[in-house]
Design brief:
The chain is an all-alpha fold and 1230 residues long. Helix 8 packs parallel to helix 10, helix 31 packs parallel to helix 33 and helix 38 runs parallel beside helix 40. The protein is globular. The two termini are 61 Å apart. Keywords: Repeat, Ubl conjugation pathway. This is TATA-binding protein interacting (TIP20) domain-containing protein. It comes from Artemia franciscana.
Length: 1230
């Protein structure tokens, strides 16, 4: 006998002991053994353990029984299928026992077994289902004992939930046993039956589903019994919540019956009907659309349904008669009291139903604001607290739905829909304020919290909206802060609201109320609870900004408030044994106090500055202190704290070598502010320590840190160049290394150019313009660089050549000689040409005789890089002098056919440089007609690259003179040449930018004409039309929102695989399939993805999902894109995704089960791995959809993933990755 068998035998022996403690301990030890993954029982031990546990279920001691049941869970996965069947058989037999305790414990046992049965073991699960189902159905149908029946129905629910697909052969029998229970006299039986039916409909076939729905429809049609109507309505609602996608087709039959039952004057039935309507809205959003207005009307009627209470009794005429009538009614109803009044449930259900419409029907916002919002505001007087809370929540949801609309209105051409919504919301504000001002003073904390939440959301939605109403609201706002017995959480909520109020209103609005706000805020800082202190300090910090704003002129007398704020902040700043959050907020608040009132508090600086210096040296508080000191250093008051900076410099220098990135960036900003504003107080030795640490930060690995470091070096160079000279060689080496980085661009490049110019103008020995240019040229000669690096280095040459003291023309001659020499390497030639162009942009080079000749000769080079550099240089020098060089470019374009592409690139450089400013457009205006004429000649060029350059030029010229040139593009769109149409449509793409432009109003009128080419017979024209649509949807969606109804069918059509575009190409002995429609499909799916972000409310999500489903089965690239779309849809339209879950899961399963061929190359393995990762991300997103865990297909897919170690490892890493950004964000926030 093995050791394990011996051990099990000993435990079984103890389980037979007469001592209940022995039995308990032995059972507990058995459970511990069963929970070990390594345990393996032999056949004999299995039989004995199963027999003993079945026996212990009848033990007289309840604790032993409970332990025995718990053992069944791990035991199921450790024994053979035959023993599991024995367990199930025994438990089923015990269910019909006359002993109540045994029945209960066996019921729990069955639930445990069902919950622990592995989904992957379909054979065992099927056998268990076969054994249980028949008996459960019989037990349910007999109705002998309600307790047994309830347990049987609950177990059946569990069974259907986990193994619904395995029970398909028994669905008819189950349905027959469950339907009669809807007429049970016990509501508990009805509710559990409804739960079981709702799980059944997830997997039953269409015929059975039709039968169920017809049964409910017939019951509601002929049934006069209110009680049974409740059952049927509840069942419909539950079915809709579980399987709304299947109920959609029956909405037209079901909905009239629900409306009929609402009117039957029974509060419970009305509540159930409204809850069912809510389910319809969420789960059958497409089918319910025609009836939404009727639902709104019904909800508005019942949200005011309160037959036993008159809210306006004091304001109505005939008050006495009304009260008498009410009293008579009460007397006629013997024993009636408020406890019997359930009308609040009806109002709550109506509110929830309205909220569902608000949350899901963004297109109805104007109507909701007209008809629903006033009613919701009027119901803020609701007497039932829970209903009132729901009403507030519904209005908050309405405001949140409005916020995306507010964002859209930043476009200059505000659409009518958005402007109507805003004006309607503005109209509701006085009513909201009047209703909430009383609630803010109520004793009910819940009501006050609801009112504050609503007002906060209102301010977020429309900043500044409460300015006219603050006088009315202020007493209520301060009530919770001044109330002695107020809870800490209520005080925190109020303080947070005050912060929101100050942030979203101008200083002029807040200043009249500071005398009321500061005392309670000071009291909050003196509280004991750390959260209240923290929020109080934040309020004071914001009030300090409002008292003395620097961004707008202000004559407000802030002096009476300076001392109280300073004193309370200093007290908290001095305290060391407080929460970390309070320490940081106190430091931040003191920084703002000194930045705003430092001139008034000059005498107090000797007290608070040493404390700040001490906090700066503390590792825990140093980051908060650096940020606070930055406020002081950058203050326009130039606070006299030179001594603080002198002592801080050594400490700040050490921060530059810390690993904490936020600390380094904040320190660099602080040092820059100190150097710029307090340079006279800083000695060279102080700056030495900081500058010494800077070279290590000049790396391409963190360009943001490099940019801040360069800004600091520039400031030091201008104020104290001697410090730079000390570290000149080290700084120069690191700066040059950064300059040759291909990643250098944007603000980082500008910072580097500024630093080099400052160094060249500083007079530092050996670092004037020419030596620095020599160093740059040495980089080219030393080795090959990335081609992007040449542009950065050339920009540096241009900046140095025009710096003060530089001999610009001598430098130009030098580079021209290099460019014209036949012995020059291509890399040096490229650099020389780019440098000439960079200087020419900044300086008029019309006086340089050989310039044109050298540049034109570069066009004949064998190197494409040299030709491109020459083209760029010619365009750049034309920017410096249009009159001299632009006519030359146009003339060359006309006469030199072989150089047309390069000359067009030069022309593009000229147009691009002038299109960015008003002055540039004015300077170019006289040449536009001639440029336009020359460009149109090349619109039909057979070369794709040439057409693209021409299109970009046409687009940018059109933006300069839209009234004149846009109609010409529109006319050219109808040209018979497909090449011309391609160029014109591409040109329109370049007229669209993410910033408001004068051309936008004109584009709105004609964009539909250009996009009509989505139906063009030419494939390439349709492709550029798709690209135009994509660009518009991404950068300026307001232009196409109203056209989507006509454009979407064309977009969707291009997502389909077209067999006529698929061809076979022979490559030697092999045949390769080429899909000419693949790029079209990619662009179409990209259009769809972009519309999810910008045009969601204009999409029919059901139709959209149809094409997403087809994309899930398409090419690798399209699959990757549709996985992203699916993940987005789980957040944007979770209910719709839930309805289509079955269709979406199958393609995902197919992808995850794919295997790469044995002879595949490494790239194919990597592609397959990426595809599976993306599919698993989509699965993870689907898992996050509410109620998705109830879907059998998704559960089966998850079981498949868990059973595959490779997929499970990938899935776990993805789950970890998705949670990581949140953690990082929290770290950054802290």
């Amino acid at each position: 006998m093995s050791h394990l068998s011996f051990q099990i035998a000993q435990l079984l022996e103890k389980m037979c002991s007469n001592d209940k403690d022995f039995r308990f301990m032995a059972t507990n030890d058995l459970m511990s053994e069963l929970q070990k993954d390594s345990i393996k029982l032999d056949d004999d031990s299995e039989r004995k353990v199963v027999r003993m546990l079945m026996k212990l279920l009848e033990d007289k001691n309840g604790e032993v029984q409970n332990l025995a049941v718990k053992c069944l869970g791990p035991l199921v996965s450790k024994v053979k299928d035959s023993q599991v069947e024995v367990i199930v058989e025994t438990l089923c037999s015990n269910m019909s026992s006359s002993k109540e305790q045994l029945r209960d414990i066996s019921s729990i046992g069955l639930k445990t077994v069902i919950a622990e049965l592995p989904l992957s073991a379909s054979g065992l699960a099927a056998a268990v289902c076969k054994k249980i189902t028949g008996r459960l159905s019989e037990t349910i149908a007999k109705k002998e004992d309600v307790a047994i029946q309830l347990e049987a129905i609950e177990i059946m629910s569990d069974l259907l939930c986990r193994f619904g697909t395995l029970l398909v052969p028994y669905h008819g029998m189950i349905m027959e046993s469950l339907l009669p229970q809807l007429s049970s006299a016990r509501m508990a039986v009805i509710k559990r039956t409804i739960t079981a039916i709702s799980y059944l409909v997830l997997t039953c076939n269409a015929q059975l589903y039709e039968k169920l729905i017809q049964y409910l429809i017939d019951g509601l049609t002929r049934q006069q019994d209110i009680y049974r109507c409740k059952s049927y309505v509840l069942c419909l609602g539950s079915i809709c919540r579980q399987a709304g996608h299947r109920l959609g087709e029956h909405i037209e039959k079901v909905l009239p019956l629900v409306f009929d039952n609402i009117k039957k004057n029974d509060d419970d039935l009305t509540e159930y009907c409204l809850q069912t309507l809510e389910s319809f809205i969420y789960r059958c959003s497409k089918e319910i659309t025609p009836h939404v207005h009727q639902i709104i009307k019904t909800c508005l009627e019942y949200i005011m349904y309160d037959p036993n209470y008159n809210y306006d009794v004091e304001d109505e005429e005939g008050t006495d008669d009304q009260m008498e009538t009410d009293l008579d009614a009460q007397e006629s109803d013997d024993g009636y009291s408020d406890d019997d009044d359930v009308s609040w449930k009806v109002r709550r259900a109506a509110t929830k139903c309205l909220e569902s419409i608000i949350a899901s029907r963004n297109e109805l916002l104007p109507e909701i604001y007209r008809n629903v919002a006033p009613v919701l505001v009027s119901r803020f007087k609701e007497r039932e607290e829970s209903v009132k809370s729901d009403i507030f929540h519904a209005f908050i949801v309405l405001l949140k739905q409005t916020q995306p609309v507010i964002v859209m209105t930043s476009d200059t051409d505000t659409m009518e829909h958005e402007s109507v919504v805003l004006s309607l919301l503005q109209q509701q504000v006085p009513g909201i304020v009047n209703s909430t001002q009383h609630l803010l003073k109520e004793k009910s904390v819940k009501n006050r919290h609801s009112a504050l939440s609503l007002l906060s959301e209102l301010v977020h939605t429309l900043p500044g909206v409460l300015a006219p109403h603050l006088q009315i609201l202020m007493p209520g706002i301060l009530y919770s802060l001044n109330e002695k017995t107020a809870a800490s959480q209520m005080k925190c909520d109020t303080l947070i609201f005050i912060q929101t109020l100050i942030k979203n209103h101008s200083s002029e609005v807040i200043q009249p109320y500071v005398d009321q706000l500061i005392p309670p805020a000071v009291n909050a800082v003196n509280e004991n609870f750390y959260k209240v202190i923290s929020e109080g300090l934040l309020v004071l910090q914001l009030l300090v900004k409002a008292l003395r704003p620097f961004d707008v002129p202000s004559h407000f007398d802030f002096s009476p408030f300076v001392r109280p704020i300073y004193s309370v902040t200093l007290a908290r700043l001095k305290t060391t044994d407080i929460d970390q959050e309070v320490k940081e907020k106190a430091i931040s608040c003191m920084g703002q106090v000194l930045a705003s009132f430092g001139d008034v508090l000059q005498g107090e600086l000797v007290i608070c500055c040493p404390i700040l210096l001490d906090r700066l040296k503390n590792e825990i508080t140093r980051l908060a202190t650096v940020r606070a000191l930055y406020k002081v250093a950058s203050s326009p008051l130039r606070i006299r704290v030179e001594a603080l900076w002198v002592e801080s410099m050594p400490v700040l220098a050490t921060f530059l070598r810390k690993n904490q990135r936020n600390l380094k960036l904040s320190t660099l900003s602080l040092l820059n502010a100190i150097v710029q504003n307090y340079s006279s107080a800083l000695q060279s030795s102080m700056l030495d320590q900081a500058v010494k640490e800077v070279p290590a930060l000049l790396t391409e690995s963190d360009l943001t840190a490099a940019q801040h470091a360069l800004l600091l070096l520039t400031a030091v160079t201008k104020t104290n160049p001697g410090v730079i000279q000390t570290y000149a060689q080290t700084l120069l080496n690191e700066t040059l290394n950064l300059a040759k980085s291909p990643l250098l661009q944007g603000e980082a490049l500008k910072s580097l150019l500024s630093f080099l110019q400052a160094v060249a103008e500083s007079g530092i020995s050996g670092l004037s313009s020419e030596p620095l240019i020599n160093h740059l040229q040495d980089l080219i000669e030393k080795g090959p660089l990335h081609k992007d690096a040449y542009h950065s280095l050339a920009e540096a040459v241009g900046a140095l050549a025009v710096s003060k003291g530089a001999d610009s023309f001598k430098i130009i001659d030098r580079f021209l000689k290099k460019a014209s020499s036949k012995n020059t390497y291509d890399s040096q030639l490229v650099f020389s040409l780019l440098s000439v162009g960079s200087i020419g942009k900044r300086l008029d080079l019309s006086g340089v005789d050989s310039l044109k000749k050298v540049l034109i000769e570069s066009f004949n080079s064998q190197s494409e890089d040299v030709r491109s550099a020459g083209s760029y240089a010619l365009g750049s020098i034309a920017v410096g002098n249009l009159n001299e060089f632009l006519p030359f470019i146009l003339q060359e374009t006309e006469s030199k056919a072989k150089r047309q592409y390069l000359l067009l690139c030069s022309l593009k450089e000229v147009i691009s440089s002038h299109a960015t400013s008003t002055n540039g457009a004015i300077a170019l205006a006289p040449y536009i007609p001639e440029i336009w004429r020359r460009l149109f000649i090349h619109c039909e060029s057979p070369l794709k690259g040439t057409r693209k350059i021409v299109a970009e030029c046409l687009g940018k010229l059109t933006m300069m003179e839209p009234n004149k040139l846009l109609p010409e593009l529109k006319a050219a769109r109808q040209n018979e040449s497909p090449l011309m149409r391609q160029t014109i449509i591409t040109a329109v793409k370049f007229t669209i930018s993410d910033q408001p432009q004068p051309i936008d109003s004109l584009l709105r009128q004609c964009i539909g004409d250009f996009l009509s080419t989505l139906d063009d017979p030419d494939l390439n024209v349709r492709m550029v039309a798709l690209i135009l649509f994509l660009s518009t949807a991404h950068q300026k969606p307001s232009l196409i929102r109203d056209l989507l109804d006509s454009l979407l069918p064309h977009i969707y059509r291009e997502t389909n695989v077209r067999k006529e575009l698929i061809r076979e190409v022979e490559m030697g002995p092999f045949k390769h399939t080429v899909d000419d429609g693949l790029d079209m499909r990619k662009y179409a799916f990209e259009c769809m993805y972009t519309m999810l972000d910008n045009c969601l409310d204009k999409l029919d999500i059901y139709e959209f999902l149809n094409h997403v489903e087809s994309g899930l089965k398409d090419h690798y690239d399209i699959k990757m894109l549709t996985y992203l779309m699916l993940s987005r849809l789980t957040l944007l339209a979770p209910n719709t995704v839930l309805q289509r879950l079955e269709q979406l899961v199958e393609p995902l399963r197919s992808t995850l089960s794919q295997r790469v061929k044995a002879n595949a190359v490494k790239q194919e393995y990597e592609k397959q791995d990426d595809l599976k990762r993306s599919a698993l991300r989509a699965v993870s997103a689907l898992q996050s959809v509410p109620d998705a865990e109830k879907n059998p297909q998704l559960n089966e897919l998850m079981a498949t993933i868990k059973s595959n170690s490779e997929l499970m490892a990938l899935y776990e890493s993805i789950k970890k990755d998705t949670s990581a950004p949140t953690d990082q964000a929290l770290m950054d926030l802290n």
